[in-house]
């Protein structure tokens, strides 16, 4: 929602819609943007129960439930908040043909 | 009405499915048809399915039908295409299509007569789970089958090891109750009494169970009569051709919307947790592949099926995968087979999204099935957001909570009669936030848009329980610019029971992995069931107190259940609190208008702590927004975010 694909002199890059911070160049892997922004990783229960006063049961098994919060390095808007298992950090992959 | 087209087909043409489709496309291409007749024909068919629904509600004795509207009605074509559906259980269109295919494999037309009715509940052949039973009947006109009609619903108990037939402890389908492959239960209008005895012998509530089956037959008979009236009025050629024209119009509209999505592959991965056997995770990979005006949902790269009953059958996989597409892209289009024509769903037998013949699946469509809904919503929202057509950007949304958590009980009621009961409040979950509005607070499953929670007075009149509270829960909905729907928080205890205890089961899908948010929005909160044992609730009542919150009574002990638990028992003095899952938020919570947060706090939906930590909103002593403090708090959170986060390369 907060990222847009911008083209400038044949170069394509992703930028933040909120502050126009340039995040990264885009070639053929759209998901690369996640390597170029700060991310906060925490256990889902720590974040939701302790910080947000919400409920989720802590996962005690080996495959921990984690929350990954990605922020724009320019304005700190939350680009993405992902709940997943720590064994699979990118459960959402986008591979559009136009890249 | 009359056919406007100059190219008038024959009866043979319209009874040939391929030829009828070809002619309908030609009519639409040329514009040589009457648009009003097409619309009237479609609406008339749809109204027949609504009348079927009313018949079910007026003739069933089960609250699952009369109160919760947990049923489906359809008119189908002879090739399994949906002519019209009542849109109560939307995803049942997949079951109806798959089950009719199984019936057509089993019976030739010469084996069938007017008034025949075929019962089916087989998961591997199309039904979502065995509690869902359907009666499918051919509609004859001049000695030929011209349509099929379908009525189906969840039956309160069809046997198995747990009351209500939700059995988390099973490791195959044989403990989940009777399996009914396509079986002719009604022969030329007469119920087979021998088969009826067999079916009733499996159920803990035999009279209610078979009364439901009779009401399916009744609804189908109503549909048959209405179809006959329509055919008498309009003729077979007009009725079939204009039904097909409506399919073509819907299909073309749907294709135009899919065409607005960028071609590509959008992959979302999720997990089912706890199959009842152990708290292992089962991975589901959902690829949404967009190519031109067609879309494929590929689920074949998912984990092998689980031992426990969380696997879904192919009919539910079809219906659950398609539902978000309908809600996000086809929201205003007619529900007929044209809507589904451009979408293909691929599954592999023996996996979590496609259970084999003997695999357990009693909770499957509510577990793996609705994980599919969440995953398709997530992938589709990405495709929608990447579209260059801004007019569809609003259709992105956070996933629904889609965790229908089941509480079942059996025992003896206040009238001395044995009962088995599925409390339909489990459907009171929050929905995902959308781009312009918060999620519905207790909107139910995405696939079951006609469902309702039951009236409390009616529940207490029918079953030996009394409610302490039922309300929207605090801090449920995922924080976001638009907040996820809250979901329900309710508690009840035993009251005037004819037995010392009620025994049942509890099953929920989401305890560890909450429903995700979207676009910077945070996940919604998960489901939980808490048993407060040996409370002083009766003493408090005697003192005139009416506890309506956990801190208003004293328990001897407190037990948070597992997400799958059986037996789950309600005893005298125990309070069972069921907190139902919430929808994910959409957008960064720091961009939510502070006045909306203040209202959420005032409404009891967000705590002061969550307003401060999740939304960065500070309220004054009167509950009004302190704008300066809020601005400062939000600046602090932004600063804190960048301080506490790290670049992956670090």
TrEMBL record, chain A:
Superkingdom per UniProt: Archaea
Pfam families documented for this protein: Acetone_carb_G
InterPro entries named among the record's database cross-references: Aceto_COase_bsu/gsu
UniProt protein name: Acetone carboxylase subunit gamma
TrEMBL record, chain B:
Limits of the Hydantoinase B/oxoprolinase domain: 34-589
Basic and acidic residues bias (residue ranges): 630-644
Tree of life domain: Archaea
Compositional bias per record (Acidic residues), positions renumbered to this chain: 620-629
Residue segments, region Disordered: 620-650
Protein name per its UniProtKB record: Hydantoinase B/oxoprolinase family protein
């Amino acid at each position: 929602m907060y990222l847009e694909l911008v083209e400038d002199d044949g170069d394509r890059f992703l930028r933040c819609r909120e502050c126009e911070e340039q995040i990264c160049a885009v070639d053929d892997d759209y998901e690369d943007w996640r390597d170029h922004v700060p991310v906060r990783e925490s256990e889902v229960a720590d974040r939701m129960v302790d910080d947000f006063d919400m409920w989720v049961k802590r996962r005690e098994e080996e495959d921990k439930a984690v929350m990954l919060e990605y922020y724009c390095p320019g304005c700190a808007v939350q680009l993405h908040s992902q709940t997943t298992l720590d064994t699979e950090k990118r459960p959402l992959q986008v591979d559009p043909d136009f890249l | 009405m009359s056919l406007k087209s100059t190219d008038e087909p024959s009866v043979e043409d319209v009874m040939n499915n391929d030829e009828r489709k070809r002619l309908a496309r030609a009519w639409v291409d040329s514009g040589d048809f009457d648009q009003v007749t097409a619309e009237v024909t479609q609406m008339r068919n749809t109204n027949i399915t609504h009348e079927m629904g009313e018949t079910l509600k007026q003739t069933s004795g089960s609250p699952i039908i009369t109160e919760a509207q947990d049923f489906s009605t359809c008119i189908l074509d002879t090739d399994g295409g949906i002519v019209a559906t009542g849109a109560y259980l939307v995803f049942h269109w997949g079951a109806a299509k798959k089950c009719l295919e199984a019936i057509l494999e089993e019976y030739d037309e010469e084996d069938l007569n007017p008034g025949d009715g075929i019962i089916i509940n087989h998961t591997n052949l199309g039904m979502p789970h065995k509690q869902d039973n359907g009666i499918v009947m051919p509609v004859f006109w001049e000695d030929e089958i011209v349509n099929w009609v379908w009525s189906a619903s969840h039956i309160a108990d069809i046997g198995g090891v747990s009351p209500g037939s939700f059995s988390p402890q099973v490791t195959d389908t044989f403990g989940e109750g009777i399996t009914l492959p396509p079986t002719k239960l009604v022969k030329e209008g007469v119920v087979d009494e021998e088969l009826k005895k067999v079916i009733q012998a499996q159920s803990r509530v035999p009279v209610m169970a078979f009364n439901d089956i009779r009401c399916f037959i009744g609804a189908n008979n109503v549909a048959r009569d209405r179809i006959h009236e329509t055919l008498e009025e309009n003729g077979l050629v007009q009725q079939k051709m204009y039904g097909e024209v409506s399919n073509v119009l819907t299909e073309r509209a749907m294709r135009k919307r899919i065409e607005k999505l960028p071609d590509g592959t959008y992959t979302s991965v999720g997990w089912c947790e706890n199959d009842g056997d152990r708290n292992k995770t089962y991975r589901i990979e959902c690829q949404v592949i967009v190519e031109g005006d067609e879309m494929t949902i590929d689920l074949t790269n998912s984990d092998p099926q689980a031992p426990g009953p969380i696997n879904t059958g192919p009919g539910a996989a079809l219906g659950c995968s398609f539902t978000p597409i309908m809600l996000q892209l086809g929201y205003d289009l007619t529900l007929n087979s044209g809507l589904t024509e451009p979408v293909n769903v691929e599954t592999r037998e023996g996996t979590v999204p496609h259970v084999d013949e003997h695999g357990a699946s009693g909770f499957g469509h509510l577990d793996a099935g609705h994980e599919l809904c969440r995953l398709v919503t997530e992938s589709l929202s990405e495709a929608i957001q990447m579209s260059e057509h801004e007019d569809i950007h609003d259709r992105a949304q956070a996933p629904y909570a889609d965790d229908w958590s089941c509480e079942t009980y059996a025992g003896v009621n206040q009238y001395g009669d044995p009962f088995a009961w599925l409390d339909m409040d489990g459907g009171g979950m929050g929905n995902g936030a959308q781009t312009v509005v918060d999620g519905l607070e207790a909107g139910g499953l995405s696939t079951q848009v006609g469902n309702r929670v039951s009236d409390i007075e009616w529940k207490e009149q029918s079953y030996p329980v009394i409610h302490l509270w039922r309300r929207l829960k605090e801090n449920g909905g995922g924080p976001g610019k638009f907040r996820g729907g809250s979901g329900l928080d309710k508690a009840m205890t035993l009251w005037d029971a004819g037995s010392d205890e009620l025994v049942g089961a509890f099953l929920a899908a989401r305890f560890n992995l909450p429903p995700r948010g979207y676009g910077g929005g945070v996940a919604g909160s998960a489901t939980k069931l808490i048993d407060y044992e040996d409370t002083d609730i009766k003493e408090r009542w005697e003192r005139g107190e009416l506890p309506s919150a956990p801190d208003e009574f004293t328990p001897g002990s407190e037990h948070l259940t597992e997400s799958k638990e059986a037996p789950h028992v309600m005893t005298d003095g125990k309070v069972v609190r069921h907190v139902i899952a919430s929808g994910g938020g959409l957008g960064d919570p720091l961009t939510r208008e502070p006045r909306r947060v203040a209202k959420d706090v005032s409404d009891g939906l967000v705590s002061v702590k969550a307003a401060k930590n999740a939304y960065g909103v500070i309220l004054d002593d009167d509950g009004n927004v302190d704008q300066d403090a809020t601005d400062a708090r939000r600046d602090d959170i932004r600063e804190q975010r960048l301080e506490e986060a790290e670049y992956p390369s670090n």
